[in-house]
Amino acid sequence: MDWQTLIEEPAVIAAAVLALGLVVGYLVGRLNKELLTASGVPETVEGTPFERTAQSIGTSTVEIVARLSSWFIYGIAVLTAIHIAQLLDTDAFWNQVIGFIPQAFIAILVLILGFIVADKSELMVSEYLRGVKIPEVSMIPKLVKYSVLYVAFLVALGQIGVYVFPLLILLVVYVAGIVVVGAITFKDFLISGAAGIYLLLNQPYGIGDRIEVDDRSGIVQEIDLFVTKFEDDSEEYIVLNRRVLDDKIVRVRD
Tens of pLDDT along the chain (254 residues)? Predict the structure, then answer.
């Protein structure tokens, strides 16, 4: 058998394709890791539960995404090599595989991104509502997190061809339920938000002013959408903006 005949053998071509795929997959994984690191992804996902879970098993979010891109190319190379070597000769099977792999790859990326966005959203909402002393507020960050995850799962399932219309209906019912229950449960919270908008727009008092609310007086330290913080000597008061308006605030002039 001469060299020309040898290199035209399906098994040889398949081996070459497999070797090339392994090299390209490795290089793409390294390149993606460098690009993700340079773009600040490690700092963005730092502190999220997903990143902590990844670190607990000896890896990171960046490494998972980079390895995923490498394994995607490895999988394509293996399937292509099998097809060239004619180990499986079913055109319908290969058409399904070729169509499914990119969809599965995107679905996995969507899930990873969904977990990261959900974790970051929970942290941001928790930080924003940290000063609001309403028990029900502690539910909001979790609702935001699981809502983002639900949408991510919907997108991922739709990407791999799962019929998601019933889940979309469930999402609509879920959102409607949150709106109704939220309007009832957080009635005072919403009223305080509306009062906060009024206070921020009209500014009847500002930071540094001395005010009196419900027989408590002090110097205003902070005004946000939901609460007003003021302190006097060693005492700090945090009052819902609704109560500020209901109790007829008094601005004390020196």
Answer: 455 554 556 777 788 888 888 898 889 888 988 888 888 888 887 777 777 777 777 788 888 888 888 888 888 888 778 777 776 655 666 667 677 777 888 888 888 888 888 888 888 888 877 766 666 667 778 888 888 888 888 888 888 877 777 878 888 887 887 778 777 767 777 777 788 888 888 888 888 888 888 778 888 888 888 788 888 877 888 888 877 777 777 777 76
Residue 235 lies in domain: 190-252
205: domain CATH number is 2.30.30.60
Calculate the CA dihedral of residues 88, 91, 97, 99 and round it to 10 degrees: 160
Question: What total of structural domains would you count in the chain?
Answer: 1
CA atoms of 36 and 15, how far apart (whole Å): 31
Distance CA 185, CA 135 (A): 11
pTM for this one? 0.55
- With respect to residue 240, please indicate whether it lies within any of the assigned structural domains: yes
Contact 171, 199 (CB under 8 A): no
- Looking at the domain assignment, is residue 214 inside a domain? yes
Of 235, 234, 236, give the one whose Cα is nearest residue 222.
236
Rounded to 5°, angle at Cα 161 from 158 and 163: 70
Tally of CB atoms within 10 A around 202:
8
73, part of any domain: no
